[in-house]
């Protein structure tokens, strides 16, 4: 495969990684519209917390680095967050305390979103019982 295709594949992995992180961080906001996403979001949220709080590597980071090496460019050390996101937010670098803060913030945001979603559900059930859909 030509090196350019490996570079594009590595970029696609970065995009997938970023989309996954956004889904982990705020995917619960989609539940009022698509409640079945619960079965996809909850494991993603738990995985994201496991990786971030446990200082474990995400499998997408080594994949991206391997694709970059096949493209003839250098990969990077550390995690996706350290390499792509922290330079934008925190120029000093990633510490364990900061990783825990990120992980707990993501959990807190999602706990609030889940609580909001769960509080909305009984009212929808009552409405359907009082006014069943036609048909």
UniProtKB/TrEMBL annotation:
The keyword Transmembrane helix applies. InterPro entries: DUF2784. The chain crosses the membrane at residues 6-30, 98-119. It holds the Pfam family DUF2784. This is DUF2784 domain-containing protein. Keywords: Membrane, Transmembrane, Transmembrane helix. The lineage of its organism: Bacteria, Pseudomonadati, Pseudomonadota, Betaproteobacteria, Burkholderiales.
């Amino acid at each position: 495969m030509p090196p350019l295709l490996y570079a594009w594949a590595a970029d696609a992995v970065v995009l997938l990684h970023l989309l996954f992180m956004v889904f982990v961080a705020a995917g619960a906001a989609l539940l009022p519209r698509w409640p079945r996403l619960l079965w996809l979001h909850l494991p993603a949220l738990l995985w994201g917390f496991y990786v971030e709080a446990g200082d474990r590597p995400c499998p997408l980071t080594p994949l991206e680095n391997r694709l970059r090496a096949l493209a003839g460019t250098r990969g990077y050390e550390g995690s996706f967050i350290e390499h792509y996101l922290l330079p934008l937010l925190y120029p000093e670098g990633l510490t364990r305390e900061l990783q825990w803060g990120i992980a707990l913030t993501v959990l807190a945001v999602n706990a609030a979103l889940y609580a909001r979603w769960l509080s909305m559900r009984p009212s929808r059930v009552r409405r359907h019982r009082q006014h069943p859909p036609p048909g």
